Amino acid sequence: MATISANADLVSVLAAEMATGVERAVDCWLAQVERALTDTQLTTLGRLNAVRDILASYKTLTGKTYLEGRKQ
């Protein structure tokens, strides 16, 4: 019984750590997008290109060529 409880605790801790990591990663990417979109030194086209660069960087780092949207 104690083993089952310890395993459940371990799974809970690992899940919480993973969720925290995902949240930090999403915050990082969105902060970059926000900075690009609010950069007053850039033109509208420059802001769009900056966001495209962030997206391209994400795809390169993750090895993705296509991002799947939300399933309906």
Characterise this structure.
The protein is mainly α. It has a domain at 24-60. The chain has helices at residues 2-38, 44-62.
3D shape: elongated
* Low-confidence sequence ranges: none
Oligomerization? single chain
Provide mean pLDDT, rounded.
91
Beta-strand residue fraction:
under 5%
Q: First CA to last CA: what distance?
A: 41 Å
Order of helices and strands: HH
Number of E-state strands:
0
In percent, how helical is the residue content? over 70%
Radius of gyration: 19 Å
Helix/strand/pairing category:
mainly alpha
Characterize the largest beta sheet: strand count, sense, and whether it forms a barrel: none
Tally the helices: what do you get? 2
Which features characterize this protein?
0% strand; single chain; 72 residues; mainly alpha
In short:
The chain is mostly helical and 72 residues long.
Topology:
Layout: H1 2-38, H2 44-62
